[in-house]
Amino acid sequence: MRRIADKLVSSLTDWIQRFLQNKDLILRRYAKIEKLPGKEDQIMITHKDGAKHLCVVVPLVNDLNTALEPLKAYEHCTLVCYNTKENFDMLINHWERLVNFKKHFHIYFVNPFSTTLKQWAIYPHTHQIITQGQALKLGLTTLFQTVEATTKEELEKKVGKEG
Description:
Layout: H1 2-27, E1 30-36, E2 39-47, E3 52-57, H2 64-68, E4 76-82, H3 85-93, H4 95-101, E5 104-110, E6 119-122, H5 124-130, H6 134-144, H7 152-162
Parallel strand pairs: 3-4, 4-5
Antiparallel strand pairs: 1-2, 2-3, 5-6
Helix pairs in contact: 1-7, 4-5
């Protein structure tokens, strides 16, 4: 079972690295986008001005404290997870904490196997300023639905076949 968990991390890390590289083809803001040595779940983005931005890949966020721990040292940071109902529920259930975590923190919700969009992103701090109250959950749900939701079981089947 550990092997499948490692494959989930590796597959999502590879996907987000390619996504970030492709996203920067036009703007060319980054000097480097690289996996950190010995950290299969972490990507460091180095901006041309030398600023560092850490991306941590946690396919299925079971423990938010553990997921956020490596990000604490960075002003600009990203959590990357799969677009599952459980990960979305984590966002809703811990919204206030995520809003107050960091101003320049965002989360990518990804489903590389989606037939529609493959990812959506949220900056909790910024989103909180724009949308509050009852409209908040509706807005977040709408974002979640832009990418097909997946499940742990579906991911294990598809990622297990890749390698």
